[in-house]
Predict the structure.
Amino acid sequence: MLQKPLNTIKIRKNKKSKTKEKNKKNIKTFSFFVENNDVVITVGTKNNIFAKIKYLNITCYDVIMGSDFICGDVTVSYDYKKWNEARFIISAACFKYFTELIAKSSIDATKRDDITLQYHYEIIDMLDSYKDKNPRSIIDYIAAFENYELFNTFIYFRMIGLYRLLAKSDCEGFYSPGDSLDIYIMLTNIQPYVTQDIKFPTLLKLFKKSFDIQENVLIC
């Protein structure tokens, strides 16, 4: 039996249940805990979520934790697994972007006598350090992108949005309009390298909306 509150959850119905389904459009986020089969529900801000609950007793439930990202009339939702996959795909696309950027620059990384190419050398070193690692999850990328020594390098290449994206909690907080602008620029740069379905157009729309109307993207 669950005893501790869950921060952000999605409840999807069991098709075998005979409990009457509530209007899907009118149900918002639930934060809840279970005690002696009774459900204490707190309505949150998520959407597209519904549950079938009878007299405060769970007849059947399937809990899927996740996050909503909301700004104005734009919302994009992921369960935690899908959000980690999305961040992994975005991170991998950034590596592809940097790889092609360095290839086009035709820089001789062995000389390193040009101070104006300092940031290029740092990107080359980052790429080299990951050549044999074969990253499989977002965890494999976070160490590189949260390296403060690369902070100015990412700013120089207008890719600091990747750090902004990864540095937030999955279930609370917000992206400021400034964060959103950085993330939007980064996403625009890597767009040709994202081929999987991670709701990319909606992400672009979300962060553009944030800096257009100067409102935070809420993480719920």
About this structure: Residues 1-36, 40-62 have pLDDT under 50 and may be disordered. The chain has two domains: 9-61, 75-219.
